[in-house]
Amino acid sequence: MTRTDALARPGLPKAFRRLWWATGIDNLGTGAFTAAVLLLTVTVTHDPRLVSLVATAAYLPWLLLALPAGALADRHDRATLMWRAQAVQAALAGTTAVLAACGGISVPVLAVTAFGLGAGDVVFGTAAQAILPDLVAKPLLPLANGRQQAITTITGQFAGPPVGSLLFGVAAALPFGLDAVSFALSAVLVATLPRRARSAAPARAAVREGLAWLMRHRLLRTLAILLGVNTFCGQLAYATLVLLATQVVHLDARGYGLLLAGAALGSVLGGLVNARILARIGTLPALLTALTANVGAFAGIGLSPGAVLLGVFLAVNGFVTTLWNVATVGLRQQLVPPALLGRVSSAYRLLGWGLIPVGTLTGGLVAHGLGLRAPYLVAGAVRGIALVAALPVLVRALAPGATGDHT
Length: 407
Known about the structure:
single chain, mainly alpha, Growth Hormone, Chain: A, globular, disordered C terminus
């Protein structure tokens, strides 16, 4: 048994391990793409507003397609949706590689590519979270979510960006070709997952049912809104990180990839240990720790004088963000009825990720008007205000002795 395979194995079934490997392969290519697409954008323009436009395009599908994707995940076989979405992504990434090799790249081309791959991510990501309880027993969900977070970070943030940066230095087309291959291989693995028939309820009624369920649940509704603020702030800050790294800290393409890899160390560690931390300290302390530490991490990133300290604060952000993800995804998988999980998850992500495009555009404007450090300081302040506002609901619902009435 390899060391990496052991990360996925303890008590977890073979079907989960296939999903786990597919996730790792997929995210290796996606991580390479994430670094390369912004580096390629910077070769076309240094305008923060245009750089943020490409980032916005990648997340716009979460605003436009999240609810329909949830209905699809509850009405059709989830494994089939996943591999078909990745097959389309593979074709799109391959086309982009050809265009990059031929010199046919512009900001509009990059924005269209980012939107198309983001649309595939909406379908794949919604179905992937919904399928996990089909593959793993409920008591093992925190462990499975932690392993998924770990492999996503190891490949998507730790390995993928440096690989993408190095390949970009050789030829601009190579990272996009790697992404196409990774999508194809992941699709092959996902196609082997067990099939399960779903209800064929009308799509519009199915969407309304999932959204209504979430709106009635005070705790999950609050977490979704809080996630929306957090992701808005995250994209407000990170949309122009490539400019902060290359123009303020003066890193080259290789240094930028290594910075992302170093930052990912925190997320990797979080994915491996946060399930145990969650079990030891409980959900409420875990959430409050994650939210409070992120406020400080954002301020630290904005004030960092050099690459080392910048990487440290990025790593802290990755660790506590993973803690938040393990806690909240587990809550959702345990509290939502299985037949509604895809729709409720998509409604949750619509609230939680729908403001990301607004955040990326806002980040570009803030960086353009106030400087490249300003987005992190603004984001930290907004996240602090949101934490104070949400605190009463979190304590009421999750503190020891709480009534458990979340409606």
